[in-house]
Amino acid sequence: MSTILSLQNISKRYGAVQALSGVSFDIPTSSVFGVLGPNGSGKTTLLGIVTDVLKADAGSFTLMGAPPSARERRKIGTLLETPNFYHYLSGYRNLQIVANIKQQSEADIPRVLELAGLTARQHSAFKTYSLGMKQRLAIAAAMLGDPQVLILDEPANGLDPVGIAEVRNLIRQLALSGKTIIMASHLLDEVEKVCTHVAILRKGQLLGSGPVNAVLARDNFIEIGSADSHALAQLIRQHPAFVELLPAGNGVLQVTFKDAVDPAALNNWCAQQGVWLSHLQMSRKSLETAFLELTNN
Ligand SMILES: Nc1ncnc2c1ncn2[C@@H]1O[C@H](COP(=O)(O)OP(=O)(O)OP(=O)(O)O)[C@@H](O)[C@H]1O
Fold it and tell me: ABC transporter domain spans which residues (predicted)?
């Protein structure tokens, strides 16, 4: 996977508040990248820096391997705060106004309306839209000019479950078409559903980043099974890192170890003692658990 955006040692201070301290991570091309953190952890500041709304005190970032020129930066579509759409004008007219402000061709409007699922309602007044439609129109506005990267600050904020699902589907659809989506969010459930990668911030410091699966992996908890589950249970109790065992039905055992266990090494260890595993699965914790573990530490 290639890197589309790479942050190196970004720091930013507002007076006495250190909003970001030396934050570095890479965002893979075509990922849906979630920036997570409690209130005040620096998410908005970070997005502001990569979209050039704010200037970092230190550090730098590269877009597609190079410091971004003004032209390159136009390849980033942004939705940092809810745009002020005109309530009495239609979705289409509002996009015309945005296209003119952003000096982008109006010819792109039907495409973004279609992507956002608003074609049928494009001539209705904005004030008649549901909250989900309003947010989809805002994302459509950010997509004008077909940017490769979209940056969204809390795209699901304030929406009801239907609106959240609509925005989620739109983000997934954009990711499928190869766009990279970077979103700040505090809705962990939502991030877990839609993001492929995450970075977790607390008080301006990066606590961890990487593929969602790696962040969520519980590396001390493994499900194993074997044709002779009785022999497996006896054997696994002898493992030097064994803590406890729970039968999960169908001969599968859920085993907790003292610390991280490499699945390949565990497989090997069992085989050496004559027990062949027919099932081996790392388990996942919820993003909420991972987030609380990281942010409470
Ligand atoms: N213009 C500013 N002047 C002074 N302090 C600021 C300013 N903008 C942000 N801060 C402070 O910097 C820190 C990081 O704020 P930021 O908005 O980036 O966090 P956030 O993670 O986006 O939070 P939230 O989820 O509440 O939006 C906070 O302590 C905030 O109070």
Answer: 5-228
